[in-house]
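Dear colleagues,

As part of the handover before I leave the project, I'm documenting each prediction I ran so the next person doesn't have to rerun anything. This entry is a single chain, and its sequence is reproduced below.
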Amino acid sequence: MERAGLLLNKLRLKAATVAGVETHHLTKAAWRAAVGKTISAHSQPVFLEGDRLTVHVDDAIWQTQLASLKVAILKQLDKVIGEGRIGKIEFRVAPPKREPRRATSAGPVLPSTDEADRIEDPVMRRLYRTARRKASA
């Protein structure tokens, strides 16, 4: 998606010349070309409703900073995807991302009922189990 935005930016194509592509997809593709690598690393266009673009940002600081750059960002988006497609931008703090976690054990480890498990020496434990198996056979 970012490659399409960079290509549109380099070619300076108007969105009207790109047939069959929705504004929402153009906006997502052109976001990095319009705002730059640093800002796009901390913001992501989420959806487009009418002419209002909603963008998720990492935190309230980014929200404040980007709100002050709203006019400049709109101008850049107009250059990349065409004028009049986006009239307003709303910056929202994104819900926190869930980090990947390691799987935990399937259930609680139950204490062993085998009396041989209480023998700490592994050789003696094995000898005890062998002797018990022979005695019960």
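The longest strand covers residues 43-49. DSSP finds six helices and three strands in the chain.

All the best with the project,
I.
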